[in-house]
Known about the structure:
This protein has about 140 residues and is mainly α. It has 7 helices and no strands.
Amino acid sequence: MPTPPRQPTTVTAGTATGPALGLWALYDLHLRHYLDYAALLLTPADAPLAVQGAFEDLSGQWLDALATASPAACAWQAVRRRVCALAGPRPLGPVAHLTAPQQDVLLLHLVLDLPAAEVAAVTGTEPGAVHVQLRSLAAERR
């Protein structure tokens, strides 16, 4: 399992305080799901590198992320961006016609079998929004 990205300081998982602690906590909380998502679109060797790279990107903007309504949503977007960039052109080809939230729900809930509440936590959205996406996916399949 990859180690979380480090701040430019000497902060480590055991000594993180203040805002850096939140970044480490979020990384630890959702790492398994981030890796599972990345593994759907990347090689097994690239998946952990993508997640680590996303958190390295996020570490430079962490204070801005903390000022948003959902730092978890910022983290998810960083992971999603990094994975899609590494996956190459049209990484979500078969579901490219869907909106990004629909793609996320489809992969996390229907492929990785995460409960809707967990999808909401990982993506930093409200559970109700996940249910709306599930309903829209079901309507689209008809």
